[in-house]
Design a protein that fits this description.
It is built from 21 helices and 24 strands. The strands form 4 sheets. A 12-stranded mixed sheet has the order 9-8-24-23-22-10-21-20-11-19-12-13. It has a 6-stranded antiparallel β-barrel with strand order 1-2-5-4-3-7. Helix 12 crosses helix 13.
Amino acid sequence: MRIGAIHRLDYNEAIVLTHDKWKFDAGGIPQYAFLLATARDIDGDSRDDDEVLLLRVDGTAPLAMESDLHAVREEALRAALSSNGDASPSVVLDVNLDPFTKNRVSFTGLRCRILGTFYEDDVDGKKRLDFGADVDNFYATSTYRVLKPVGEGLSEIASYLKPSDREVERVRIGSVRYSATRRRAKAAKQDDSAVMINIHDFIGTKTGLLGMTRMGKSNTAKIIIARTFAVSERRRAAGGTPIGQLIFDPQGEYANPNTQDGTEIAAIGERHVRIFKFGAGSTESHVRPLGINFFDPAQVEAVQGLIADKLRSDGSAGYINDFAVTRFTDIPNDYSETTRAQRGRLILYASLDRAGFALPSHNAGTSQAFSVKLAIKEELRAAVTEKVGRNLFAPAGRIFAVKGQDIRPLVDAIIELRNAGNVEAQKFCDDVRWTSTEPIYTGQTGQSGNVRGWRNLLDLKEFHNEATDQDPSEEIYRHLTDGRIVIVDLHVGSPPIIKALSESITRRLLAKQTLVFTSGEEPPSIQVMLEEAHNLFSSDKYKDDGDIWVKLAKEAAKLNIGMTYATQEVSGVAHQVKANTANWVVAHLNNTKEVQELSRFYDFAAFASAIITAEDRGYVRLKTLSSPFIVPVQIDRYDLDLVNEARAAAGDPALIPSPRKA
C-alpha cells in the first residue's frame, strides 16, 4: 500500500514523507512498522537492478518546512481568537483552515532505519530472493516510492530466512504485531500476517526466552517443544535418528493442564511423553517415580554422585575425592574387584542406615527380603560371630547374605576387630572403597578429626524411594535416545532436593553424551529446557568449570545438545551464554537495567521503550538464527490444535476437546 516517498536518505536512515490521509487509508503506520522503498519505475524500465529497501519506522522526523507550517497554523489560530467573540477552545482550536493550508500541514515525516536490501539473486540458474543487511547504492530521493506491506507480503518479509546449509522446515509461531494498541490493525484486517520460523534453528542451538513471569515464555517453549517433536517423528519415519527432549518443570505446567492454554505437553501422548515426579507409583506406564533406591546395587552410581556432592560441604578432605572417583559397582568376570565393591557397599549402606534411611523390605526387583551379599573369610566370620554374640551370615552360594538390620552390627564389629589388630579385619578394610566411606559412617577421619560424615546424608532422605527399580537418570537417558519427551516434574519437593536431583540428571546426560562423542560417534540429538536460568548461569558461576550447568552451557553444542533457557533477569545470565544464544524471544521486562543489558545484542536497543511499556502476554520481539532482523510478534497460543498436529506426525489419532472446554 503506497504511503509516501523518501524525503531524505543516507546509508543508515531514511526520512519518509507521508500524509494523514495516506496513513488513514493504510490502516495506520505504528512505530516499528516495516516499510518498503523502491526506486524502480513500475510503469517503465528500471535503470538499475531490482532492489527494494526494507525500512523500519523508529519515530517521527521534522520536515524542511514544518516550522513554517506550524507558524501558519499558529497565525490562523491567533486570527480566529481575534475575530471571534467566543474565545472557548472549541471555537478557536477547531477553526477550519483553508483547504490548501490544511493539506500542507497534513504532511509529516517518519524517521526510519534502513534494515537492508531485498534483491533477486541468480543461484545455479534459478532466481532467489536474497537480503543484504546494508545499502550498496542510492538515488535521488524523488525516485523512491514508499509502501506499507500487508497480508501475505508482510508475512513474506517477517518470515524471511537467510539462505544457509541448514535444513529448512517453516512452521508458524505467531503473527506480526507492531504495537500494544491493535484497533486499527484489526479494523483494517492487518492483524494476522503469519510469522513463519525455521524450526531447525531451535534444534541443537541455544534459545533464550526472556521476559517477566506470566508474559508467555512457557507458552512459547511449548510451541517449540511440540514443533520439535513433529520434526523428530518425521525423522524417525524416514529412518533417521529422533530427537529427545528433556524438560525441567519447576511449576508443573508442562506435565499438567493449566488455565493459560487448557492443555499440556503431556497431552501429546503416553507413548511419547514420560513424566518423572516425586510420589509416583512404579505401576503407572508413563509416569515414573522420581527418586532413587539408595539400597539397590544397580543404582549405586547415582547414590555415589549425590553423596559426593553433599560431602563437599566438609571441604576438600582427601576421603571426599577418593569417594567421588572410586567404583562401587560389581565388575563382571572380575571376582576380586566385585568382592571389594560389595564390601564398599556394605559400609555405604551402614552409613545410610545410620542417617535414618528406611531399609527396604525387599531386594530391588525380587521378592526376597532385603540383605547385603558379600564374600567374607571363615576366620573373620567366626570373629564377628563371637564379637556380636550371634551368627549374622546366611550362605548364598559362594558368598553370604546379611540381613538389613544386621548391617550396622557387622560393620561395627569389623571396625572394632581391625582396631584391635585382627589381621583378617585389616585385610577386609584395606581398600579405597572402605577407607573413603568409613569417615562418612563414623564421622571421623585421621586427617582432620571430626567431620559431618553421615550427617551430610540427612538432606538426601527425600530422594530414597524403594519403589524405584532403576536409576531415573539412566532411564531418562534411554527415553531421550528413543526420541521421547521427558518431563521432570519438580513442583513437589524441597529446593535442595530439587537442585541436587536436577544436577544429578544433567550430570548423567553429559557423561553419556561425552562417552558417545569421545568414541568417535555422533551423539544423539537432545534438547534441554531450563527455567530460572539466572540461577544456573550467573557470571560468578560461569567461572567454575566444575559446575554442571556451566559445563552444559559450554559443551552443549559439541555434544549435540540444544538448550532453551528462560529467565526474567537478562543481566543475571553470564555474557558468554548470551553471546552464544542463537534465538532470542524477548517479552516484557520491567526495568531499564535488564533492557540495557539486552540492548548490547543485535538491535534490541531500538525496542527498549516498547519492551518496558507493553505488558501484553505473548507480545515479543523475535530474532532467530535464520532471520536477519528482529520481528515484533504476537506468539500463537499453545492449544489442542498444536497437540493434534504433533500427534498426527507420530501417527496417532487427534484428541477431541470435551464439550465444556469446546
